[in-house]
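Narrative summary of target 7.
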Amino acid sequence: MRKILSVLTALAMTATVLAGCAKGGAETTAAPSETETSASVTTAETSSEESKAEEAPEAKALRIGSLKGPTSMGLVELMDKSEKGGAEGSYEFTMVTAADELLGKIASGELDIALVPANMASIIYSKTNQGISVIDINTLGVLYAVSSDDSIKTTGDLKGKTVYLTGKGATPDYAFRHVLKANGLTDSDVTLEYKSEAAEVAAILKEKPDAVGLLPQPFVTVALAQNDALKIVLDLTKEWDAAGIEGSGSLVTGVTICRNDVLKEQKEAVETFMAEHNTSAQYANSNTAETAALVAAAGIIEKAPIAEKAIPYCSITYVDGEEMKSLLSGYLKVLFDMDPASVGGTLPADDFYYLP
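Modeled conformation, tokenized:
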């Protein structure tokens, strides 16, 4: 949190300056013929049209940032289409590896739209004085419990087990403990061993096949590829939904946010992006082989075969409007109840959710 706040306060606003130029004309001394008169009129009309064109503001490309991971995988078809000049809208894409870098760019005005972790959207909303809105959910749950222990069929079967996971006090930790509580388990029923990164959890699973690891995609697919004995024993999103706690929404991983000044000034362009984002997400789920090739080319996952196996488990989606609000607000309420700081100290107001 301290890291994010320092990024947001340290970055300065930047601006660009556009320069223009004007054209001159020529005069004639001979009496013009009918043909010459026609040509002069045409030239005058053309000059007038060119002047108007020069005075008209150029359409701005939307600057879009995303994280290197599942939240970007539903966007790669649009990225490819845009690069080839086939997109309806005009876009500039940036991909980064750290969420605080992405949020810093939104706060400083370097980006117009960003695909960010769901709780981080709430934090940036608070720290920018309600300066952003969520326009869609792009990724649902990507967390899975992995083990070779065939006895694990439900969350209740984790009682007495040790679960290895990353990020104590981070959203995967909160999500997992919510699922445990919803199934009548407490921290004393399940031993939680925290590691610094997902690769470390995967290494433990390789050494101890009977251990249980909580991993996000695509680390799950990588771990399964390295050890044939491992399998997915629990889908945390399904376990969350199965708990049936009213008002808890769903397990939301990634959302798309837009600066409110951009929404005001370029509403039509933003809604065009939303439509194209929807199409791109659908393409990812329907054309996994082609999307996997694009994911590998973008450097999100190194090898296309692994990407192809991971995509069906990445919960790539597109949800906007009232359904988005319902799912996301419930999820943020769960996090808030566990630790208010995880969502920026307070729950967002209704204007956090863009409802076109």
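The chain has two domains: 62-141+252-352, 143-243.
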